[in-house]
Amino acid sequence: xxxxxxxxxxxxxxxxxxxxxxxxxxxxxxxxxxxxxxxxxxxxxxxxxxxxxxxxxxxxxxxxxxxxxxxxxxxxxxxxxxxxxxxxxxxxxxxxxxxxxxxxxxxxxxxxxxxxxxxxxxxxxxxxxxxxxxxxxxxxxxxxxxxxxxxxxxxxxxxxxxxxxxxxxxxxxxxxxxxxxxxxxxxxxxxxxxxxxxxxxxxxxxxxxxxxxxxxxxxxxxxxxxxxxxxxxxxxxxxxxxxxxxxxxxxxxxxxxxxxxxxxxxxxxxxxxxxxxxxxxxxxxxxxxxxxxxxxxxxxxxxxxxxxxxxxx
Length: 313
Description:
The protein is 45% helix and 17% strand. The protein is of the alpha/beta class. It folds into two domains: 24-108 and 207-308, Periplasmic binding protein-like II (D-Maltodextrin-Binding Protein, domain 2, 3-Layer(aba) Sandwich), CATH 3.40.190; 111-199, 3-Layer(aba) Sandwich (D-Maltodextrin-Binding Protein, domain 2), CATH 3.40.190. α4 crosses α5, α10 packs across α11 and α11 (244-255) crosses α12. The chain is globular.
């Protein structure tokens, strides 16, 4: 059975363009949402390609929005670096025996993740009882939904949760196929513009922590790969700091939104290059919440999944 499952996963990844590479190719996911400006700048300015030249590496980018799918690709070896993952997905993956290592921080975008109700539909979390909700399972949005329901005396058993990636969830909300959707950043803005209602953001429920990650195998076998990725990540951050207006305009162009909306997302993103002790404490609290609410089955030692270079010195 395990062999069949792995074969199925491998075939699925191949069909999506994630073919297993050799030691001369660094495969990294390109995750633009919610507003991952360091990643956008890194790719658009070829910063990683320039850093990787010193190792004789080619760089292949793959657009994957789901943290859970990135974790699967890391496990199969079809992805070397997860450009941006939420720590909820990292914790869930490690709990299931798939070691995913945090190599750098990205942001703490509390206000960019939201549960959004359909136009002319429910107007509160309590009103979601018995309703259909679409969104990505195994993510910080999933955790936000569970936390919001618990806060209102409900559980996942009280709603109809339909697994969908962000674009599909947004489309389902637009066409009124679902009563609510778990959305992020630009999709939240666009949904509001079309008359949908934000029922709650993650603020006060979950502290989203976005990170760069890799598999334990890549971390052990290719420490120099990790080094050049972090260098490119830091170079992107430095460029953003020195060219903020230009960076926001670039983000707006890539995301297909106005500069005004891009500025809002920039202000809400709370970018960081490294994690701190508050993030570690927050992850420990997340683990307990997930166990209590059936999102994960096993304890995780956070200190074992965060590389020293991912922490503030």
